[in-house]
Amino acid sequence: MTHLRGHDAAWREWRAAMAGSRMHHGWILSGPMGIGKAQFARAAAAELVAEPGIAQPPAQSHPDILIPEHPPANKEEEKKRDAGDPYETKRSIPIDEIRRIQHRLTTRPTLGSRRVVIIDPADDLEKNAVNALLKSLEEPPVGTFFLLVTHRIGRLLPTIRSRCRVLRFQPLDARDVDAVLADAAPQADAATRAAAIAAAGGSPGVALEFVEEDLGRVHAAMQAIVQHGDPDLTLRADLMAAFGQRPPRRRIVATLDLARSVLSGALRNSPPDRQARIIEAHAAIVTLAAQAPIYNFDPGMLAMEIGALLAQAAMPREASYR
């Protein structure tokens, strides 16, 4: 029986539904980024399509588990993919990918009577792709189930949400995050793991990025700005230096995830007037994170903008330097 650390309640709800007489055809897996929803989706899909007495391949290569892809970002990245090299992908899942999946749905499942479509994440669907997906959710083929992984359920259309059952995921506790780090990043020493856990806000994904991207200095600079403000810009200069002059895309994304986590942590035990500033800064970081993979931001300017938003959360608006 498949087990993913920290999600016992979600498994109980999922398996109770599987054991029922009428399994809902559409599911939204909702919760913060990096807590294991995509892993859950693949493991749950593998259980759903399994047939007694029929050998089942892994979820990533199962013919009855369909996952639309983020295609290469451009022609140059497409050449890298074709050559077997690492490549950058588009941020959005285009309508062509959904149509490719829908074409597969016109045939019968390969190994059994059920098939699962995983959209990971559904937040990244282009507008036309969302409309195409809605048609499949309205009239799903017999034996077809949809698992929509989402980090921000409010971004999904109400018409999508109304056709799906929501399965909610909560951040993991520190012990579970530590166990994930011990398995996935055994090279990290105790001090690094402790810092990663503190920064992660219950997200093993953020904790792993913290270790892999060596974000200790970045985290220290962010915490200092949130706690003390930065009226003379010196802490923002520290953040820019820790960020690096030419950070790769992975480090940029990890840094933005870390900024969101730092703000989420600051929200706890803050007075109401400061909470409003933190929430506003968090929303701006979320917007910036959506824009960063699309626009070619200057790294130094991006680091300064992140620092400015963190400073906004620390100080009254009239004292914040933007």
Short description:
The chain has 322 residues and is α/β, with parallel strands linked by helices. 52% of the residues lie in helices and 7% in strands. It has two domains: 8-168, P-loop containing nucleotide triphosphate hydrolases (Rossmann fold); 213-319.
Features:
single chain; 322 residues; alpha/beta; Rossmann fold; five-stranded parallel β-sheet; 14 helices; 52% helix; disordered C terminus
Molecular structure report:
- This protein has helices spanning about 10-20, 35-50, 75-80, 95-105, 125-140, 160, 175-185, 190-200, 205-210, 215-230, 235-245, 250-265, 270-290, 300-315, and strands spanning about 25-30, 65, 115-120, 145-150, 165-170.
- With about 325 residues, the chain is of the alpha/beta class.
- The chain folds into two domains: about 10-170, Rossmann fold; about 215-320.
- A five-stranded parallel sheet has the order 2-3-4-1-5, covered by helices on one side.
- Mean pLDDT is about 90; it is low at about 315-320.
- This is AAA family ATPase.
- It comes from Novosphingobium ovatum.
- InterPro entries: DNA_Rep/Repair_Clamp_Loader, P-loop_NTPase.
